[in-house]
Design brief:
The complex is a heterodimer.
Chain A lengths: L8 E5 L4 E6 L7 E8 L6 E6 L4 E2 L4 E4 L5 E6 L8 E9 L13 E6 L1
Parallel strand pairs in A: 1-9
Antiparallel strand pairs in A: 2-7, 3-4, 3-8, 5-6, 6-7, 8-9
Chain B lengths: L3 E4 L2 E4 L5 E7 L5 E7 L5 E9 L2 E4 L6 E3 L9 E3 L8 E8 L7 E2 L3 E5 L1
Parallel strand pairs in B: 2-11
Antiparallel strand pairs in B: 1-3, 3-8, 4-5, 4-9, 5-6, 7-8, 9-10, 9-11
The chains are: A mainly beta, B mainly beta.
Chain lengths: ~110, ~110
């Protein structure tokens, strides 16, 4: 599975959009981009995933560049409860067998 | 619908003792996996399973055994506990195909 690169930490003002970038320049054609977050010491929470089209759900939007080498997770109106570590993970569909490999993620601090 | 249930939530073991961490899911998910998370670190994959009777090793399998006799259960066995196995253990499950994993709330294990 392709590796991902994320900034170590980011700040965001409460009520503003949080834009979390992820670089996955070695992504292959059958690999999806997944985003998870972990709030404090809880279990990770699935946010969203996509292959090449932009995706949106009730939690966030995922923007994938046309060459698929990078993506951005957007939390449209960040709240204090969105403070968490956000993980960008690339994993193939055919290999979606439990091998979800986590990196270090981005620590997002939402400030009042 | 309970999701992914892990027991116990907390455990203290003496060096050399063995124990089994329990994980059960009620969503009829095919894929299940175990992760460990050391303080201040990301999650590392221990073992995973793509269905009943099928398991495979992840990034850090040494010192742990798994089996998958039913779709619902995926226990993790520590053969002879060591202080280096002090960690938080998370179990996760997913249906086959692209999609998000559901994580349990974790088992906090201390080996003294």
């Amino acid at each position: 599975d392709a590796k991902t690169t994320q900034p170590t930490s980011m700040d965001c003002a409460e009520g503003r959009a949080a834009n979390l970038p992820c670089n996955h320049s070695t992504i292959s054609g059958n690999e999806y981009v997944y985003w998870y977050r972990q709030i404090h010491s809880q279990g990770p929470q699935y946010i969203i995933h996509g292959l090449k089209n932009n995706e949106t759900n009730e939690m966030a939007s995922l923007i994938i560049t046309e060459d698929r080498k990078s993506s951005t997770l957007i939390l449209p109106h960040a709240t204090l409860r969105d403070t968490a570590v956000y993980y960008c993970i690339v994993s193939s569909y055919s290999g979606n067998t439990g091998k979800l490999i986590f990196g270090q993620g981005t620590t997002l601090q939402v400030k009042p | 619908n309970a999701g992914v249930t892990q027991t116990p939530k907390f455990q203290v073991l003496k060096t050399g003792q063995s124990m089994t961490l329990q994980c059960a899911q009620d969503m009829n998910h095919e894929y299940m996996s175990w992760y460990r998370q050391d303080p201040g670190m990301g999650l590392r994959l221990i073992h995973y399973s793509v269905g009943a009777g099928i398991t495979d090793q992840g990034e850090v399998p040494n010192g742990y055994n798994v089996s998958r006799s039913t779709t619902e259960d995926f226990p993790l066995r520590l053969l002879s506990a060591a202080p280096s196995q002090t960690s938080v253990y998370f179990c996760a499950s997913s249906q086959s195909g692209p999609g998000g994993y559901t994580f349990g709330s974790g088992t906090r294990l201390t080996v003294v």
